[in-house]
């Protein structure tokens, strides 16, 4: 005899299947992101341990800066291509660029006070974890903040460039970093909610993989941005003591 299922039972079972699929999907996103952070750390520490490599990377710092901005626009299109190798290449290329780009900064602080780097990482991890969790569990729709976050990010980049080339003020650098940390705490929550809402049960394997890598790409960028600016804040506070 066929088992009789009431509509409420069927809905509960469907909801459980979706929840399980969503958890697996989000774990894939966070695993990719964590691996990206680990690879960045390895590259950064390897370059920072070699004076010759550090000098070479420092001489190309603006090349890496421009390349990172370019990858920020191009990588999403590459990740959602039908080619898995291209998707992985875009993500890991972005990870590698960040590892090289932040090596001079991290190397400088490792030589001055290695504890600052470790504290910055722990604070970044705690901030990221809390805001990503908030974005995952909140019932409030954060999609309306997308345009604001985009415009604010552009404004931050312009302010940093103005300070580097014209003002060269440690106070302005501190203020910019504080604003960036606050901004990207919100961005992390927004991105987490958007990544969660991208999940669709029954996605084709290629589509699901692309979404996982894209989600990791988004969250990875926010985590590294938090780390860089928290490290800058701690460094400026140390120099002012």
How far apart the termini lie comes to 79 Å
Report the mean per-residue pLDDT as an integer. Answer: 89
| Tally of separate domains | 1
Biggest sheet statistics: none
Radius of gyration, taken over Cα atoms and rounded to an integer in Å: 20 Å
Helicity range: over 70%
The helix/strand order is HHHHHHHH
Low-confidence stretches: none
What is shown here, in short?
This protein has 241 residues and is mainly alpha-helical. Helix content is 87%, strand content 0%. The protein has one domain (25-240).
Question: What's the topology here?
Answer:
Blueprint: H1 7-48, H2 51-59, H3 61-79, H4 84-101, H5 103-137, H6 146-167, H7 170-198, H8 205-240
Helix pairs in contact: 1-4, 1-5, 1-8, 3-4, 4-8, 5-7, 5-8, 6-7, 7-8
Supply database-style keywords:
241 residues; mainly alpha; 8 helices; 0% strand
Describe this structure in words.
The protein has helices at residues 7-48, 51-59, 61-79, 84-101, 103-137, 146-167, 170-198, 205-240. With 241 residues, it is mainly α. The protein is globular, with a radius of gyration of 20 Å. The chain starts with 6 loop residues before the first helix and ends with a helix.
């Amino acid at each position: 005899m066929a088992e009789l299922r009431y509509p409420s039972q069927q809905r509960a079972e469907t909801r459980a299947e979706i929840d399980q699929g969503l958890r697996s999907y989000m774990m894939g996103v966070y695993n990719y992101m964590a691996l990206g952070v680990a690879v960045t750390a390895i590259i950064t520490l390897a370059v920072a341990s070699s004076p010759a490599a550090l000098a070479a990377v420092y001489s190309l710092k603006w090349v890496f800066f421009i390349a990172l901005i370019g990858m920020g626009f191009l990588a999403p299109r590459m990740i959602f291509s039908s080619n898995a190798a291209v998707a992985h290449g875009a993500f890991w290329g972005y990870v590698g660029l960040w590892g090289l780009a932040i090596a001079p900064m991290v190397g400088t602080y490792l030589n001055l006070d290695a504890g600052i780097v470790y504290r910055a990482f722990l604070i970044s991890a705690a901030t990221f974890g809390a805001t990503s969790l908030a974005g995952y569990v909140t019932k409030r729709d954060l999609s309306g903040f997308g345009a604001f976050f985009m415009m604010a990010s552009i404004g931050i980049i312009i302010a940093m460039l103005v300070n580097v080339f014209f003002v060269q003020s440690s106070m302005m650098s501190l203020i910019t970093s504080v604003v960036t940390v606050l901004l990207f705490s919100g961005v992390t929550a927004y991105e987490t909610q958007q990544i969660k809402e991208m999940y669709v049960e029954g996605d084709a394997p290629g589509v699901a993989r692309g979404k996982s890598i894209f989600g990791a790409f988004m969250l990875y960028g926010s985590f590294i941005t938090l780390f860089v600016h928290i490290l800058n804040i701690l460094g400026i506070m140390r120099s002012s003591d």
